[in-house]
Structure formats: C-alpha cells, structure tokens
Amino acid sequence: MKTISSKVVKKFITKPPSLLSSTASLTSIASFNVSNKAFPSSLLDDFTKFCYQRDLPRAMQALELMHTHCIRADCITYSELIKCCLARRAIQHGKRIHVHLFSNGHLPKTFLINILINMYVKFGLLHDAQDVFDKMPDRNVVSWTTMISAYSAAKLNDKALEFLVLMLREGVRPNMFTYSSVLRACDGLFNLRQLHCCIIKIGLDSDVFVRSALIDVYSRWGELENALRVFDEMVTGDLVVWSSIIAGFAQNSDGDEALRLFKRMKRAGFLAQQTTLTSVLRACTGLALLELGRQVHVHVLKYDQDLILNNALLDMYCKCGSLEDANAVFVRMLEKDVISWSTMIAGLAQNGYSKEALKLFESMKVLGIKPNYVTIVGVLFACSHAGLVEEGLYYFHSMKELFGIDPGREHYGCMIDLLGRAGRLSEAVDLINEKECEPDAVTWRALLNACRVHRNVDVAIHAAKQILRLDPQDAGTYVLLSNIYANTQRWNDVAEVRRAMTNRGIRKEPGCSWIEVSKQIHAFILGDRSHPQISEINIQLNQLIYKLMGVGYVPDTNFVLQDLEGEQMQDSLRYHSEKLAIVFGLMSLPRGQTIRIRKNLRICGDCHLFTKLLAKMEQRIIVIRDPVRYHHFQDGLCSCGDFW
Ligand code: ZN
Ligand code: ZN
C-alpha cells in the first residue's frame, strides 16, 4: 500500500457515506468537529493538523480511522506524532503507531524506522528498540548510532562497544556523527581515553577494526599523539590500521607525518591500497610536494585505471603547478568523470593556461559531459585571467539556464576578480549588492584586492570594514586598513585599528616559504637565520639584487594598500622569505629545472617584480603558490598578469 496524498483521500471520502465501511467511523469523523467546514472533511488533512498541533488524543483517533481504511500519511507527519508521544511519555500510543506503520506487510522508510528505534530508546525500552533494529533490512549509520548511544547512555558499555564492532564488521563506516554521539553518550561516564581503557579491559583492543576505529576517533578529535600510540602498540600490522593512521595525519594537514608513516608502511612490506595512496597524495597536494608526489605516482601505476586515484593524481600535479604531468595523466585516463575534467580545467586556469582551460571546456561540452559547480569556477577563473570579460559575464549570467547551476560564493569571487582586473570596480560593487545572500568575507576580500590594485581607497575602506565585521581575526586586513589610513594621515583611525588588533590579540603571522630540494623541504622565514646555508644565500641574494638593479629593478617600497607588516623597510623587504627560497633554489637545483615555492602569505609587489626580472635574467621558470593563487614566472612575465 502506498502513501495516499491528501487529494486522493479527499476524493475518497467525498463519495457517498454508504461507501465508507462503518457508520462508527463516520461518527468519529464528524465528532472531530474542529474545522468549521462541513463534513466530509479530509481525514488525512485532519490527521496532519492534529499531529502538528500536538493534539494526541484526536491524532490517535484519526490514526485508528486511517488504519481501518488502509490510509497512510507521510513520514514527517508520523515523526511529528511520535515526537508528541515522546513528549507525553505515551508508551501505549507509541506502540500502536508501531503496529500501524508495519501493518499489511508494509515496510516504512529507514528514516521512519530510525525514529521508531529512537522512540523506544527514549522510553527506555531497549529490548523493543533492538527488536525493531534487528528486523531492519537496511540499517544506516543513524540506526547504528541510535543503538550505540542508547547502550552507552544506559551504561551498557560492553553492549555499545559490541555494536560499534558489529557496525564496523558490517562495513558501515561510522561518520563524525557516530563518533561524536558515542563520545557524547559516554560523557560524564568516561571520555575518549576511558572508552579506550574499557576497550582494553574487555579485550577488544586487538581487534583490527576497533583499533582502526580508535585511531580514527583520536585523529578526528585532533588527538594525533594518542592515535599514534594506539598505532604503535599494535603487535601485528594490518593494512586497515596503516590506512587509518596515514589518513588521520593527512586529514589533519600533517603531511610530513603521513608521508613518514607511508614510508614505514612500505618498509614493513605492506602494499599500499587505493585508499592509502589517495590519502598520501592528498598530503603531497597539501604540501605541494611534487617530487614525493611523483614517487607515490609510481605506486599508483599498478592501479592504472582507478578513477579516484587518477583524480587525486591530477589534483596533486595541478596544485603542485606541474601541468605537463597533469596533462600526461589526463590524456592516459580511459575513464574520466566530471571531477577529472573540472580538476584539469581549474588546474589549467589557475596555472595561467586560460586559453587551454577554455578549449578543454569546449571539448567537454562536445562530449556531452555536464559541467558541475567546480567546472564553472574554473571557466570563470580562466575568463578572468585571460581578460575575457564579456565571455565571463555571459557564462556567469547564463550558468543557471545552461547548466542548471546556481552561482555560488566562488563564482561571485571569480566575477569580482574579473571585473576588478578590468578596472570595472563599480560593477563589482553592484554585483555584490545584487547578491541574494549576504556576501561573505571571501567575496569582500576579492573586492578589496581589486581596490588594492586600482588604488581605490574609499571602496577599499568599505570592503575592509565588511571583512573585519565577518572575520575579526583577519590580521592581513587590519594591517592593510591601517596602512590606508596612515597614507591619508588619518592617525586616529590608525591608532584605533592598532588598538583593535592588540585587544583581540591579533598578530600577523611571519611570512614563510617552502621549497623542496632532493625530497627535503626547506623552510625560510623572514628574520630567521637557522638555515645552514643562510649566509651564502644572503650573499648571493645581494649580488642578484645588484645585478637586477643594472637592468632596471627598483625595490618597490610603496606599501600603501599592501597588507604587509606596518614597520616594513627596504632592508627587510630585501630578505622576504620567497626571495631566500628562490635564491636557495637557484643554488641547489640543476639548470633548467623549475623552481617551485609555496608561501603562506600573499606575495608582495616587490617580490613579484624581483621574481619576474630574475626569471628573465636567469632563464628560469619560477612557480610561487600563495594562499590564493599561482604565479608562473617566465621570461619577465607572470601568469597572474600582475593582478593578484
Ligand atoms: Zn615580498
Ligand atoms: Zn603573479
């Protein structure tokens, strides 16, 4: 029997009364007498109304009638009724609803069964809950989680753990919700570590699934030391556990440790599986470790046509700025999905190959692959960087109609970038104002950036204030705002910004650049002299600056509209971390090899100019990836087109 919509029911009860099965029912319907409408009214409509009004007696009366006439309401209405029973602790009514839901061999939706289990749990009838649970054909995480937290709350810890193990055995992956509800349920009784002790006490700790679950839980709560301890206590290794620990570190952005463990795992003689390799690739991607990524690629080869792995490889090569490698993977892939295409399009666009990105988008459309949200972000990004303002506006305004995708935050960001780049600031402001939902900090940052480039102080102040309202911890924006005020001699405003920073304990993080040389990562921080070759690097840097000045380099000391530290001076500018990393790259890498640098802060105007001229003078390709974009320096030019 299917759920009957209220329209059908209306038709059903507007038939002559004689067709209804009993006069008793008729009296019942009439006796509701709640609406001023004359009988016959819609039974289902009344039922729904009673449920939402939390009128339990009348809702139950209507339910009995519906039961007699084999009428069913929708899941949401039943869940409202069950809530009502719970609120009044109406156990018998709850049981009656249970019978009705399963009557005539009907199987309610998993969603509704979960609500029923939850009802029994709340009534403290764990046997009934388990009975419903046992008979469920399709259990999902919610079902398992409900039972696990019920047992934990009832202090039946062994039972809760048993369910956790069974769940893992059935291959149902607990999600964060499962873990948090296990832990929440455990709260006060035992926290995570005590849960761990309990697992050891009942001898479950040797279970590979429990161990990997424990590692997952610790990792998800950021307790990586404990995760590693659980891992290290393991006597015999197991691939599942290795995967958990590696994924744990990779997801917590500790790529170094993830890679160290990956190497250990290989030494221990385990063959990496797809999932592990995917985690490791993500770690390489996060750190922009191209050489290590290439090493992992070798292991990926045996899963040559694994789509997920190939997509992870593509992403890694794109984010590491090696489009040649990305393209080689892309071309070799027999199976490509929309993620593969989007990754490649966005990768090309972000690395300065706008035309190629748009060409690839055309091929994708020809093949009939439907673009997704990310694809359009890549396309708009490409239009923006190629200066194709009209094309960008066309895609932005027609994306809903053409591809059924509503413009989101990232699309707006690209459009503000596009208009800002073209100097059409007032249109960018209009775009922000016409946005349906409230613009977020990222959108305002894109506008602020455009103002910075076009030196529009008034709009910049407005955008900066909006950013700080939404993200009061954004150090860069405070510094920028204070520099703008300083330049216009608004000293009171400068003092106020500085005070706000002090009060909120905000300090701008020091600039740091990383470069990978011989599979080792070298970090350079402004003012830090701990690198073993720092003296030589400084000497070389000074010589290079001297040589560059001979070909027209003038250090750019204009800090207006830059989010650099206020106390910048020409001398500290000289030793910005990316300059140190570039020089170290020139010293250590063979001629002809691309110098790839990752940076935590946006590159400053002086370093940008320095790198452009240096790339030409030294005939080197230099790639700098900052938190927002990629800069491909080659032959005196940068892929960002001097807008960043
Ligand atoms: Zn700099
Ligand atoms: Zn650039």
From TrEMBL:
Per-repeat ranges for PPR: 140-174, 207-237, 238-272, 306-336, 337-371
Localization of this protein: Mitochondrion
Pfam families referenced in this protein's UniProt entry, alphabetically: DYW_deaminase, E_motif, PPR, PPR_2
Record keyword Transit peptide present: yes
Ranges of residues in domain DYW: 552-644
Record flagged with keyword Mitochondrion: yes
InterPro entries in UniProt: DYW_dom, E_motif, PPR_At4g14850-like_plant, PPR_rpt, TPR-like_helical_dom_sf
Highest taxon above the source species: Eukaryota
Any one GO biological process: RNA modification
GO cellular component, one term: mitochondrion
GO MF annotations, alphabetized: RNA binding; zinc ion binding
Chief location of this protein within or outside the cell: mitochondrion
Keyword terms, alphabetized: Mitochondrion, Repeat, Transit peptide
UniProt similarity note: Belongs to the PPR family. PCMP-H subfamily.
Protein's name according to its UniProt entry: Pentatricopeptide repeat-containing protein
Native organism: Populus alba (White poplar)
